[in-house]
Write a structure and sequence with these properties.
Blueprint (H helix, E strand, L loop, with lengths): L1 E4 L5 E4 L2 H13 L9 H19 L7 E4 L5 H10 L2 H7 L5 H13 L3 H12 L13 H4 L3
Antiparallel strand pairs: 1-2, 1-3
Helix pairs in contact: 1-2, 4-6, 5-6
């Protein structure tokens, strides 16, 4: 996934450089920018815009950025959440250190599994000693982290 961010903070996202170029042209000139142009001119505009995006990606056009990310597929997250739930939390959570369980809980929350994240913290806290971040009665535990 590609994201173009403009100096004013506008973010435009697309799957390919061609799609991003088209959306960037739409943003600048309106959705019907290509009407009235002959195919050669449309092609030329797209090529010029793809080159412009490459300059943005390389940091040559000040204030603009083009970044690439690989989103995690929803089905992968759903499978992860299903696998890392009740039984697994009971067996594994207490063996993780506080940073590890926090990272896992953050991932679960990002996947929309807030109850499962809380379960992992709760099961981890059962093995924490006094002074540990998740020990019952600690500030983090009281804050629900």
């Amino acid at each position: 996934m590609l994201t173009l961010t403009t100096p004013d903070g506008t973010a435009i996202t697309a799957a390919t450089d061609v799609e991003l170029a088209s959306k960037w042209l739409d943003h600048q000139y309106g959705e019907n920018w290509e009407f009235g142009l002959i195919p050669f001119d449309q092609h030329d505009a797209m090529n010029s815009t793809i080159e412009e995006l490459a300059l943005m990606r390389d940091g040559i056009l000040s204030g603009y950025t083009v970044t690439e990310s690989t989103p995690i597929a929803t089905t992968v997250l759903e499978r992860f959440v299903a696998a890392f739930t009740w039984d697994t939390a009971g067996d594994v959570a207490a063996t993780l250190n506080c940073g590890e369980v926090d990272a896992l809980a953050d991932l679960l929350r990002a996947a929309g599994a807030t109850d499962t994240a809380a379960l992992w913290i709760e099961r981890h806290a059962e093995g924490d000693e006094e002074g540990d971040a998740h020990h019952p009665g600690s500030a983090d535990q009281e804050a629900g982290r």
